[in-house]
Amino acid sequence: MAQTDPIQQLAATINQLYGLAGDLDANDPNRTKLILQAHDLRGDLVTLVSMQLAQSMSGYDDLLAKLGQVTDSINAGAAQADKIVAVVSGAAALAASIDNLLQQAVQLGKTAAQF
Amino acid sequence: MLINTKMQSNPRSRVTIRNIQRGFRPLLLLAMAACFSSCTTVEIYQSPIAKFQSSVNAANDGIRTYLLDINALIAEGNLYDKISSGNQEDWKLKDVNSGIPDNLIQERLEALNAIACYANALGAVANSQDVAALNQAAENFGTNVDALSASIQSAAHSQYAFQIGAPLASMVELFGTVEIEHIQRHVVERGIINGATNVEHIIQALKRDLPALAAVGAASESAIWDGKLTLYNQLRKQAATREMEPLINQFLQDYNRVQQLRSLPINSLLDDLECANQALVSFAKSSKAPKDMTTLADQIDVFADHVKLFNHVLATIQTSINNSQK
Hints:
- The complex is a heterodimer.
- Chain A is mainly alpha-helical.
- Chain A has helices spanning 6-22, 29-54, 60-78, 84-114.
- Chain A has four helices and no strands.
- The longest helix of chain A is centred in the C-terminal third of the chain and has 31 residues, at 84-114.
- Chain B has one domain (47-325).
- The relative contact order of chain B is 0.12.
- At the A-B interface, helix 1 and helix 2 of A face helix 3, helix 5 and helix 8 of B.
């Protein structure tokens, strides 16, 4: 089975979150939560793509491998549109994981720069 | 070797050798002419190179338009996110300037431009009408092939840098005024073969980077679409019955534009560019006589058709944006 590119995988997740939000009524509180999570993840996606283009970050490949693992879980949840609450909490966990990974990558980059 | 040295040390022998050389010169020229007249000329390259050149330039224009729009899409997505999430905060500068750093996009544009310059220089060599023009074109071609290395370096792939252009111009001088079509063919073939590695590496780098940028573009389109959906629903609630039809038309037009942008075939366009270039290299390397044009012509046709489709979709999107702004 071909390995999915983590950046494409994250982008697909974001598209799914926006897609789910688009199918909810405007006054549904979950819609707002989904949009906010999608917005955060889109910011992370921009950061990751910028890192890829700059190729300046040490540990970038490890970061992408871990990203692949965390996006898998959200994709599984997003496949079931009836479990919106699970998707919202899954997206929040995903955003937290990515933020954590990005911080680790920045730290790795700083450490590598010292040597 | 010993015999030669002995002969050259004898003045009489030296005269004899000079006479023999003089006698051989016309024979040598005749032999070269006979060889060249039986060989294929640059003519066989002119049509595929012209098509390759125009397609690379068209692809360059299309992808450039798309890349220059990425940060505008990200900014637009951020503003629409505020609408669809009901965020009452003011619009901030960070909403519109938190995209991909311009220098990183610029590097990819330069890499695309380097391939277009390479194709243009190749076209100039293949179509030079006299030796002076060919000399100039070959020198220019060499410079462009070397510029591909600089472009790769700027894209942080310095391990792929090669300097390979210089020998091309000297080739023209070497062959002097022998039939131009044959020199052209040699310069074209040498140039394609020498440039192959660098062109391939640039295409590979673009194949890795452009889909990532396209993914950002698609995610931003999703954000824009959700924001528009929110606005359309607000408009729908306020619209009179007679206003519904134009509203539906506008809604569907916006939806189609988003769908088309999401499905822009950047990845496969680069695949086809790579295949066309590889076919050109295989054709230049082929020692078959006569050379078989079929694969080369087919690959370049596929690439040319794909570029047309890509640019057609972009033009359609642009028209739909212009119409919606009227």
